[in-house]
Amino acid sequence: MTFEKVCSLKDVQEPGSLRVELDDVDIAVVRFEGNVYAIEDLCSHAEVPLSEGDVEEFRGAPTIECWLHGSCFDLRTGEPTNLPATDPVSVYPVRVEGEDVFVDVAIDDSLPAAASN
After folding, report:
1. What is the pTM of this model?
2. Could you report the per-residue pLDDT of 35-78, keeping only the tens digit for each?
3. CA–CA separation, 66 vs 2, rounded Å?
4. Would you say residue 117 lies in a domain?
5. Chain centroid to CA 48
6. Is 27 helix (H, G, I), strand (E, B) or coil?
7. How far apart are the first and last CA of the chain?
8. Looking at the 3D structure of the chain, how many domains does it have?
9. How far apart are CA 79 and CA 65, in angstroms?
10. Residues 6+ apart with CB under 8 A from 25
11. Contact at 8 Å (CB) between 55 and 74?
């Protein structure tokens, strides 16, 4: 795994998200209920930034909501939890060291990534 520092923990509100632009992909670093997640910052339905949406629990899952049409995406798996989105978005492993947040975007995202505490 190749983790890279993407932000400071204090840069991400709880609950909330922060858009981080990397060379190959834009991600949303998300804090919710003490966990930190990294998810692709592009709704698979409407191609708008997910980082501009609300972070909340939806049907028992930690999610981020697309502000345009209301689809929510599970922060653990990237799977949409409601329509109109039907395709998942990528999720990435996160590691928190002190106040620094590291993300590995160079992984095969076919498996769910674990959240970091």
Report:
1. 0.90
2. 999 999 999 999 899 999 999 999 899 999 999 999 999 999 99
3. 29
4. no
5. 14
6. strand
7. 18
8. 1
9. 12
10. 40, 41, 90, 105
11. no
Distances, alpha carbon 35 to alpha carbons 43, 46, 55, 87, 116, in Å: 21, 27, 12, 24, 6
In a domain, 111, yes or no: no
Asked whether residue 15 is domain-assigned, the answer is yes
In angstroms, the CA 3 to CA 105 distance is: 8
Residues in the chain: 117
DSSP character at residue 34? T
And the tokens for 80? 């949409």
Identity at 43, one-letter amino acid code: C
List the CATH number of the domain containing 9.
2.102.10.10
Q: What domain range is 55 assigned to?
A: 4-103
Which residue has tokens 């002190």?
Answer: 98
Measure the CA–CA gap between 97 and 62, rounded to whole angstroms: 22
Angstrom distance (rounded) from CA 1 to CA 55 = 27
